[in-house]
Amino acid sequence: MGQILTGCAATTHAVRAYIQRLEASNAALSWELGLNAKTIAKWRKRDGVEDAAMGPKATRSTVLSEGRGGVGGRFSPLFIAAAR
Question: Residue 62 has what pLDDT?
Answer without folding.
Answer: 73
